[in-house]
Amino acid sequence: MGSLSGTVALVTGASSGIGEAAALSLAARGAAVALAARRADRLDALADRIRAGGGVALAVEADVTDRAEAAAAVQRTVAELGRLDTLVNNAGVMLLGPVVDAPVEEWQRMISVNVMGLMYCAHAALPHLLAAAADGPRKVADMVNVSSVAGRVARNGSGVYNATKHAVGAFSEALRQEVTGRYVRVSLVEPGAVETELAGHNRPEILDTIRQRFADMERLQADDIADTITYIVTRPRHVAVNELLVRPTQQQ
Ligand code: NDP
Question: What is the pTM of this model?
Answer without folding.
Answer: 0.98
